[in-house]
Amino acid sequence: MPEFFVDDICEVLVHTTRHSPDALNGLSLSNIFNLVVLLLSEEHASTIRNYNLRARLGDILFNVFLPAENKREDDEARYRDDNEVPYTVCCDPSNGSPFLLSSKNAQETLAPSLLLLYGQVEHTGPYDKQGYRSRICSLLKYLWNSTEHRAAFAKIASNEQSFIEFANGVLNETNELIVVMMDKLPQIKNIQDEMKTPGWATRTQDEQDQTTSRLTEHEREVRSALMLANKTMKMFAFLSTDKKIAELFQGKELSTRLVNVLLYVLQNMLGQKGLDLKVDNPESYHFKPKELLSDLVSILTCFVDSKTIQDAIAHCGYYSDTLLHKLVKTSKKLGINSDDDRLDRLIVAAESAKASSLDLGTILGDVPDEFEDPVTCEIMEDPVTLTTSQTVVDRSTITQHLLNDAMDPFNRQPLTMEQVVPNHELKARIEAWKSEKIAAAAAAKNAGA
């Protein structure tokens, strides 16, 4: 079947749901739903090679088959109450339940398919991907809240490498979105303050137009960024409650990056810079500090007994003795988990880890060149050889690179993770060298004590 057949189906349905959704009333779209689920499944993912078309398949699920009340949070005109797809269209007429919940094929494959799609829309371009991912997040949240899909979410955890790639991609993007928030909200606040001053009226019309145009552009960027940032934080919050998925977050590949993102947000929201974020009408920009802090607390408290997360917090560059204490104080003030002592326990554990830890940077001193990652210039944890260029890098470095660029960064040849070979011999030498250095430092510390 030519791809343009599928493209035509998507075009008709997307156009109809946006401009004349009542035209779908009385139609049975079960075959369309089954086709979309099939084409998105990992088994048939290669059938549709065009990433933009695959992303539009996800939009079909959102526009047509997600019940209206679950997509109103997407602040777009086409999802107004007076412009909704009739509820009967998204339901199986044989049982009255939404196809997303009742379809056996969807129950078995859709959750993993949407995680795969979330990563694939990276290739649709910087302006389109945020919208696609926002709608995918809404679909995942809907599936997560249904018992019918929990078995499929459990399967996600069984494919460790696939989940790590997905989580790394989400962490990368969440960090970028928060950077946009920290950059644009202070600029919006400055312009808002400027427009309240007596001097604003003395400006020429040209100057006022330039300033308001700049404000409109900042507002557009921050609305788009915060809508998706809020959703990704909520997604991390509910995924972290799954025991098997939480174990993956505690691995070497994800624990440090997860903690870095969370503490970066906290440092900016609770520190001095937080004052620059207090814009007029924050809700209009999807800036919801209380909800964002609540999601952060939920994520952190899922790992209260995790030694890996405790150590990652203790060694994070954004960590300080006062940051988490301020989070506790602010949480209680806002009524976030006020009766829960897990955050206090996590702080005690992180402070203990910090006090008992050795300063690896000082201990290791000058690292041999062959032990350093050529991109990050940090000592490698899991060295691998890129078969296309024979370059040795850390696995985490090439994993993150391939999320956005399927090329060897050293010779620009096509590269996949399947072509990356573990360098066990070098890894053993690095670990032996580190162990020797750490043992010598610990002996010196004990002797001094």
Number of helices: 18
Task: Catalogue the unreliable spans.
Answer: 75-81
| C-alpha geometry | globular
Radius of gyration: 25 Å
Distance between the termini: 75 Å
Biggest beta sheet summary: 3 strands, antiparallel
Number of strands: 3
Number of domains: 3
What level of helicity do the residues show? 55-70%
Question: What string, H for helix and E for strand, traces the elements in order?
Answer: HHHHHHHHHHHHHHHHEEHEH
Content of β-strand: under 5%
| Arithmetic mean of pLDDT | 87
What does this structure look like?
It is a single chain. The protein has helices at 3-19, 30-40, 51-65, 99-102, 104-120, 129-144, 150-158, 160-196, 205-239, 243-249, 255-270, 289-301, 307-315, 323-334, 342-356, 360-364, 395-404, 424-448, and strands at 383-386, 391-394, 420-422. By secondary structure, it is mainly alpha-helical. It folds into three domains: 3-158, no CATH class; 161-357, no CATH class; 363-448, Zinc/RING finger domain, C3HC4 (zinc finger) (Herpes Virus-1). The termini are far apart.
